[in-house]
## 1
Amino acid sequence: MPTNRSYRDSCGMARALDVVGERWALLVVRELLLVPQRFSELRHALPNASSNLLADRLRELEHHGVIHRRKLATDSGPQVYDLTAWGRKLEPIVLALCDWGIDAPNPPEPSSLSATSVLIFLRDHARPDPAAPPYVCRLDLDGSIWTVSVDIGKVQVEYGEPPKADISLRTTPKTLGNLLANPAELDAALADGSATLVGDLQTLTWLLSGG
């Protein structure tokens, strides 16, 4: 059930934790940083949170004004959860926690890794050569399609199909995370089918290595 627990502390940090300090709350915020999502999509991204627990966190975050529900495209479109303007202010905090947590121990297996998480890492940690020609990658992560554009030394990530792509990669978020950590494993991933590439291998190598 939703919780109304409070630290009863007037410090801004304590008041912030009253809003987003419950288990899974900040991970919900993380999942909404790149694109609004339906309940089913959030469940897929956070498989270790039960449906009831996730529903509780969503109700709490909505009650506190961190997220809101809206329809996509038309009134008959699917209902999605999105960050409010106030909720969007959590982005640098969440990203800072992501960076800080890289040095923490990995969780025991089996563990999960969402598409949003690995794409945020790719966007914020890749350091492409500013002099390199621009390119676009169509990225299929467990059936979720993303456009990754590299230009002038910057990586941009957008949800949906690119109008035109130089390369196309199909894999899982966890495999992509492993490849970003160790690009030398790319040949093995392509050989065993855990990753499928259409296009130039060197371009994909540049993307994974931040070159």
Note: The domain at 12-101 is CATH 1.10.10.10 (Arc Repressor Mutant, subunit A).
## 2
Amino acid sequence: MNILIREVKVLDPHSPHHNKVVNIHIKDGQIVAIDKKEHKSDTRIEGKGLFVSPGWFDLRANFNDPGNEHKEDLKSGASAAAQGGFTGVAILPNTNPVIQTKSNVEYILSKTKSYLTDIYPMAALTLDTNGEDLTEMLDLHAAGAIAFTDGEKTLWHTDIMLKSLIYLQKVDGLLINQPEDQMLTRFGSMNEGTVSTMLGLKGIPSLAEHLSIKRDLDLLKYAGGKIHFSNISSKESVNLIKKAKKKGYKVTCDVSIHHLIHTDEDLSGYNSNYKINPPLRTEKDRRALIKGLYEGVVDTITSSHSPQDEESKKLEFDRAEFGISGLQTLLPSLLQIQGELDMMTWIEKLTSRPRAILKLPAVSIEEKKTANLTVFDPKAKWILDDQTNQSKSRNSPFFDRELTGKVKAVINGEQFQIFE
């Protein structure tokens, strides 16, 4: 492995080369030189007009393996992640069987150890993610589970939430919860509001999210520990978490890329590819989430990759499954809002913050460091179609559309891939 990336602009505030145009020489997985010199190399990447940042990390994706490999498997999910620019992905436990035993964790780790993108399994908090009986969290931690969550299901049981916060303090483990009061969301298919009324669809009120966050913050204050709220979607959620952070609570949160670029008005055509949970909210909520990113209230941006087969999506809107396939389209999605969210803000939310939340080693573009890099072209145009799509699923509102912004290369230690 001997690579030279020529004349590329570095985006890494933790690097002495930040905002400089340099040549980066990588040999045997290590950055051996960052300068203006022409180094001999076997592989050359012409970086003029391109940017390089630390490798991106996704804190929330579902690869459906084992059990639903027809929607996605570990190999196809990792391939989509790499082409999306990710050198690391934390995957949800909502598989069949659920990731809830040491052997389940070892299955993920053993199958993915040679992949370009590092895969980190998150383990279930409760058996079968039913919210009623705790898993053996300490054993799962020892086996390699990076965090604990019921993933696409909220942890509704108050006593189980309390015990989880207490038990995980023994290993400084991270509890992740998608906040949702399920009694208020049953049978809902989109945001409750003017648009849902006009479309004649049962709504999901943002109140369901706020009530869950308030409960969890009260339990956090009582029991201690730390909690990460996943997939927050509303202005009030941002305000609640902002106040908790000011009080010194150990709380972090993420937002999906979908909630930053879409609103419930996009559902006016009943396109089920916009149907996600939590649902797309209002323009006011979307703007509040972006403001939360700037203020440091919202810590990370995720792809919230949720692949679904056609049988799950080509249905009447209220019967279709929730989820968008989002790994490969995260960059062009971010570039759609570049007038509202600057590049350095979202770079931090995709690189240093998710790794810090999971207590993973920091990644930086410096000499003598392991190469963990994402190279991208913000102006390149491409079409997401059956030829370019790496996922097994096609449930994206961007399918067969021209997109702007393309990942050109991903380098992770001694492994790399260059994309045409």
Note: Residues 82 and 117 are 6 Å apart (CA to CA).
## 3
Amino acid sequence: MNEAPGRREPADATTVKPPMRDALVGAAFQLFLERGYEETTVDDIVALAGVGRRSFFRYFPSKEDVVFPDHERCLADMTAFLGEDAGTQDPVRRVCDAARLVLRMYAENPTFSVQRYRLTKKVPGLRAYELSVVWRYERALAEYLRGVSAGVRADTLRADVVAAAVVAAHNNALRSWLRSDGTGDAEVAVDKALGYVQRTFGATPAEPVREEAEGAVEADDAVRAEDVVVVVSRRGTPMWRVVREIESAFARD
């Protein structure tokens, strides 16, 4: 993450949320909801929060970053979590557990998460930004899997495939929960989705999903299956072209 203008943050800034940071996020989303994202400027945000521009850029390099204030912390937590494993746990189970850290970040504040989901759907630039964030999560999972595969060439491809499958399964269940306005048990839906990945690629079986929620999750799968979009592109394809293909697919819905 690039350093923002102004004073450098303390070493633990990714795990601590200063009140000013929260105030900036709250002010930004209040204005996004009232005026719209494109119509809101950084000057508007700092004016409502009662701080200066330097204070904003101490925490957020850009206006886009204030929409995703916790992803840097979550990515750091995920990387640390994966680094704690000495290879004694089934690697696929480990990356599934790492993906659950992202879910917990969303579930900490369902109202905020739903508001962000709705905003991101409306603003193409934010969708592109979100894709770049998702790619970084996927790379972290793949790097861990490559690290525990002892550098075998075949396992390198497998690491990329498994990481992509974990991210796709997690995001499919997460977005279903967000579309429901954050109602229901998000963990059950994600556990069910990740269970498919673990049973397909893992060395140990996935734990069963709680029975009382099974029917509700399956019903949601049936209703939302048509919302899944898969884009296949060659390695090295410019990100702008991939984003354009995804936006075109959603525009046809």
Note: The radius of gyration is 19 Å.
## 4
Amino acid sequence: MGSMIYAEAARQRGDVIRFMISLETIGYYRNQKGSQTYPPLLKYFYPDTGNFIAFVSNLSSRSIMKDCVRTFSSVTDFPVQSIATLELVPGVTWSDHLAFWRHGYKAFMITDTAFYRYPYYHTAQDTPDKLNYEPFVAMTNWIVFDAL
């Protein structure tokens, strides 16, 4: 895993990394009820419509993630959900931000929730025609113009 090698080398060099944002599947949105699923129990706290972007962190990265959610929400009306939780929740560690957590850096993931919403995740049917470009552009404008 390239991110693990990078984060380990950064820690060994003493690099100051304020935080890392991992973008993990961010282009699939549905306005139909029932289009969003979750790990056990989370379905009681989050919407069942897959039209939002999720910011996901562990507990030690919670404050920086929440700051970014506030910034995101202040410049766009794009639907957003967030969670800071334990790493044992299925899906929370399944991207490159995990490498940074393992090496003591703050990090969080921005995701459309991958396989909890996107039926083509990591399959041969995962092709560009499945993406929803209008919401994808609306969400990524924040990353390019406001977050950085």
Note: The mean pLDDT is 94.
